[in-house]
Design a protein that fits this description.
Elements (H helix, E strand, L loop, with lengths): L6 H24 L4 H29 L6 H24 L4 H43 L1
Helix pairs in contact: 1-2, 1-4, 2-3, 2-4
């Protein structure tokens, strides 16, 4: 029987996701950089979150025997690595203080971690629900 994730872990995952995202976005809002730079970093954040969820889903699907095409699996990983590379290049060349660069890097990583764990918790909760429903149905017969 699959175990449902604890409420504490689910809450911590959502807090990590929102703390990272809000920190990153508030940092952009208050930054003195040009609007096109803010757009660049915001796009990397959104693309990174999507890529992280996509990678987690592909990995989980493969583990559970759900068919995943190699091209989608590969593109998911390339996308995730590309967002990290683009953020690194952007921060390396940015005229920001080192502390600001570190802030954006860690807010991004916290957001990605949060997105992965929220996705994992969602899958685990669904799997536990399906297992419970299947077990209850089998018990009736």
């Amino acid at each position: 029987m699959k175990q449902k994730p604890s409420i504490a872990f689910v809450a911590a995952s959502w807090v990590a996701l929102f703390a990272g995202m809000l920190g990153f976005i508030i940092g952009l809002w208050n930054a003195t950089m040009q609007l096109n730079e803010k757009g660049y970093y915001f796009t990397i954040l959104m693309y990174g979150l999507f890529s992280a969820v996509s990678v987690q889903k592909c990995v989980r699907d493969k583990l559970e025997g759900v068919p995943v095409t190699d091209i989608y699996y590969g593109l998911s990983w390339v996308s995730m690595l590309l967002t990290i590379l683009l953020l690194t290049i952007g921060l390396w060349n940015a005229t920001l203080l080192p502390s600001e660069k570190g802030f954006y890097a860690f807010a991004f990583l916290l957001s990605v971690f949060g997105a992965i764990t929220v996705q994992k918790n969602t899958r685990d909760a669904q799997a536990a629900k399906n297992t419970t429903t299947t077990t209850e149905t089998q018990d009736k017969f």
